[in-house]
Amino acid sequence: MTDIFIKNQAESETQNLYNKVSNSLQTTPIIEKDYHFEFSIKEEKNTVKVLFYFGKKGIKKVIQGNPSESLNYILSEGKTEEEINEPKEYIGSDETGKGDVFGPLITCAFYTNIELTKKLKQLGVRDSKNLSDIQIKKISTGIKKLGNDNFEIIAINPEKYNELYARFRNINEILNWSHSKAIENLLSKVSAATIITDKFRKKDLKFSKKFDNDAYNIIQETKAEKYVAVAAASILAKQKQIEWFEQKKKEGIELKRGASNEVKLLIEKLIKEKDSESINKIAKLHFKTVKNLL
User: Fold this and answer.
1) Residues 100 and 86 sit within 8 Å (Cβ to Cβ)
2) How far is it, in rounded angstroms, from Cα 231 to Cα 235?
3) 3-class SS at 241?
4) pLDDT category of residue 78 using cuts at 50, 70 and 90
5) Confidence of residue 83 (pLDDT cuts 50, 70, 90)
6) What DSSP assignment string belongs to 164-229?
7) 128 DSSP 8-state letter
8) Stretch 247-266: mean pLDDT, rounded?
9) pLDDT tens figures, 198-218
10) Element containing residue 39 per DSSP (H, E)
11) CB–CB of 237/229 below 8 Å?
């Protein structure tokens, strides 16, 4: 006879994982079979089944189907979110697009407090790199409803980005400008003593002269997306980027993210078809992939 304790533990683990994914993906209810619990996850056109078997040898989790990289990260053993002490209220900022040849550089600053942080966690807010585009769309809508106007987005489209790069000659200087601008804009609407940003350079974040650095506790950390406000900022920034690519697709230009060889081939094709002014509006020109071909 199966140990009831092991069965209860399997049911608890199934429920915990179900709660983790059901906030942002479509799932079927948990059902109990003779020797396991199971539920299915619908991810775009793909269906993934999760099964927790229980028996005398303990619990075994089985994944059936082909989950995306982001879903697999969540489902894999040992990939649990790091527990941290969130500040009671603070601003978190993050950016997306700096490694993409095509598209804008987008920075978001997001304010949260104790109550909002709890709701954001329940919504499934985490680092956007571990979410699919469908999850990002769904969660970003929830973030905006919960956060109201407690965020600021700075979107630097390729044409403006190329202009700034010609002036600064350094991507970190552009990132510093966009992070500080988003944070300063947000501080005109909310009050927070702590600011947490993803660390993108060795130097400290430099604000405008009107900003009083001594009045704030400024924390810059690598992988700062472990903080809920930074994760929320990363999701809103990523959603803005997704919208840009979708708009270009509607205009008849299907582009790809990243800087892969596939992107290089696409750049070569577009350069043959379009003039340099058109390329300037869709691509970051300092990338060697582009610069060596123009």
Assistant:
1) no
2) 6
3) helix
4) very low
5) low
6) HHHHH--HHHHHHHHHHHHHHHHHTT---SEEEEE--SSSPP---TTS-GGGSEEEEETTGGGSHH
7) G
8) 91
9) 888 888 888 888 888 888 999
10) strand 36-43
11) no
